[in-house]
Design goal:
oxidoreductase activity, acting on paired donors, with incorporation or reduction of molecular oxygen, NAD(P)H as one donor, and incorporation of one atom of oxygen; FAD-dependent oxidoreductase; FAD/NAD(P)-binding domain; alpha+beta; single chain; RIFMO-like; 505 residues; Alpha-Beta Plaits; binds flavin-adenine dinucleotide; FAD-bd
């Protein structure tokens, strides 16, 4: 039985978002309990190939800044695509939109002047099981309690606390965050809406044994009736434009059913000998209008769902966690202004909205109908241009994400560039403690004195960097977002205003 304890934060769901959020909160010295429905963290759907997930620049950076990237085996095997493109240019596919590829040699990398050499990769592949294992290990090391086999079934909030029921036991916390996925119970019981659009298709992912794989073409194939993707001769992804009816029926996926869908979409009489693991999904797109109701917050798939086309859901969710963690911790520790927690909504909701539209746009050009085909052809032409390929790469890799913090400087609201100090240290390596930073490239003594009074909250770091990018001083939030910049001669009053805006000190 649980010893009665009032946690700072209870998180429903030990998926990647709940685990990463727990790590961020525990790093900021909050007490955290995760209640997870499943008895075990293992599932064939989390292992390769089903569990393969593409992560883009902001996620790679978030993991890197917390020292977690090197713990992912897959990271060690993959090279940085944008660095490769500086070499004698190799033309290779580095992403897609609606299955339309874009290539490294078409991209104008100079459009992202703040991605310095030494930056992390713009995209990597990871495996859900490995990612969750790494995050759970870190969370436990930081003191987070994870209770598996504890399905949240009820909750009740008052002005002072929140009571959560799981496995007929009662848990009390100051805050509750629903990271419990697309069917979130916290969203339902917490009084949130979930608005959006209904699906166009049922997606299938399946591991099969094909009797005659030569009847299909390897790779992604858009046909008159849908899309099939065959890789390694036994791994299939299908898109059947049935308005999601098969997925919604919740019927089991039988061999006969899958074979029928595959034959219809591929226009062949291919035979499936055996069906191993399989799952369905759709392009239903919904988002909560608000991510907070009193002491309850939402993050990850609990707050937004959309089709996995172009792989953005995990990135979006981990971005929520990075943004929310330090703000909620500061609110709990009374070192936040009233409006700090509100900025979780104002910053993250528009990012979510854009991802939903990006996935809807992909579906719109994949539909098996003449108008979609015509649009698709135009996008293919645009993607072959330098500006087109650069735009699509910027969106897919998450390089264009920037919060509107009310300052026109292109760095304010963006992730901090990975500046390299003259001794070879990289800025991203200095962020593992989760503290805010003031970076002073001019080693200004008066600034050092001023910052000494904030040392509990903000690390003062001074030193010459190899490429200053025209900046002399920067205030960086714990989530790696640049909050304030001075090109030269920092205005101390403006700096203090920024410090009090973000850290209420
Ligand atoms: C086929 C497919 C491919 C994808 N590819 C990509 C990709 O390449 N890149 C990308 O960024 N995203 C991708 N995604 C999306 C990505 O997997 C999700 O966005 C991500 O897993 C969301 O993480 P989460 O932690 O919010 O939710 P989840 O991973 O769903 O975790 C939620 C957790 O909450 C638990 N839970 C549920 N209900 C309760 C309850 N009542 N009480 C307690 N616990 C509960 C669940 O058991 C689960 O452990 C893909 C999705 C699919 C389906």
């Amino acid at each position: 039985m649980e010893t009665p304890q009032n946690y700072d934060v209870i998180i429903s769901g030990a998926g990647p978002v709940g685990l990463f959020l727990a790590c961020e909160l525990a790093l900021a010295k909050c007490t955290v309990l995760i209640l997870e429905k499943a008895e075990t963290p293992y599932s064939p759907l989390k292992k390769l190939p089903f569990g393969m997930r593409g992560i883009s620049a902001p996620t790679v950076e978030a993991l890197y800044r917390r020292g977690l990237l090197d713990e992912l085996e897959i990271h060690k095997r993959i090279k940085e695509p944008h660095q490769k493109a500086q070499e004698p240019v190799v033309r290779r596919q580095v992403g897609h939109f609606a299955g339309i590829p874009f290539y490294s040699s078409d991209i104008d990398y100079s459009q992202w002047p703040y991605r310095l050499p030494g930056s992390t990769a713009t995209q990597l592949m990871t495996e859900m099981e490995e990612l969750e294992t790494v995050l759970a290990r870190r969370a436990i090391t930081l003191g987070v309690t994870i209770k598996r086999g504890f399905e949240v079934t009820n909750l009740n909030q008052s002005a002072e606390e929140i009571i959560v029921i799981a496995k007929e036991q009662t848990f009390t916390g100051k805050w509750l965050v629903g990271c419990d996925g697309s069917r979130s119970i916290v969203r339902k019981l917490g009084g949130f809406d979930f608005v959006g659009t209904e699906p166009e298709f049922t997606g299938y992912t399946a591991q099969v044994d094909l009797a005659d794989p030569e009847k299909l073409k390897l790779g992604r194939n858009v046909t008159a009736t849908g899309m099939y993707l065959l890789s390694q001769k036994d791994y299939l992804i299908l898109q059947d434009f049935d308005y999601g009816s098969f997925h919604n029926s919740r019927k089991p996926i039988t061999l006969d059913h899958l074979q029928g869908v595959l034959r219809r979409i591929s226009g062949t009489d291919v035979t499936i000998n055996a069906l191993y693991t399989s799952t369905t999904w759709t392009d239903r797109s919904r988002q909560s209008s608000t991510y907070r109701n009193g002491r309850i917050l939402l993050a990850g798939d609990a707050a937004h769902i959309h089709s996995p086309l172009g792989g953005q859901g995990l990135n979006l969710g981990l971005g929520d966690a990075m943004n929310l963690g330090w703000k909620l911790a500061a609110t709990i520790k009374n070192s936040a202004s009233e409006s700090l927690l509100d900025s979780y909504q104002t910053e993250r909701h528009p990012v979510g909205e854009k991802v939903l539209d990006w996935s809807r746009a992909q579906v719109a050009v994949m539909k098996p109908e003449p108008a979609a085909r015509a649009l698709n052809a135009i996008i293919q032409d645009l993607m072959k241009t330098r500006d087109g390929a650069t735009y699509f790469a910027g969106r897919v890799w998450g390089l264009l994400t920037r919060y509107n913090l009310g300052d026109d400087h292109p760095l304010v609201g963006s992730g901090i560039p990975n500046f390299e100090f003259e001794d070879g240290k990289l800025v991203g390596q200095l962020m593992q403690d989760g503290k805010a930073m003031l970076l002073d490239f001019e080693m200004n003594d008066s600034l050092k004195n001023i910052m000494s009074k904030y040392e509990d909250h903000i690390s003062y770091i001074s030193g010459k960097v190899k490429n200053q990018l025209g900046v002399s001083v920067m205030l960086v939030r714990p989530d790696g977002i640049v909050a304030w910049v001075a090109d030269n001669n920092p205005d101390v009053m403006e700096l203090q205003k920024a410090i009090s805006r973000w850290f209420a000190i």
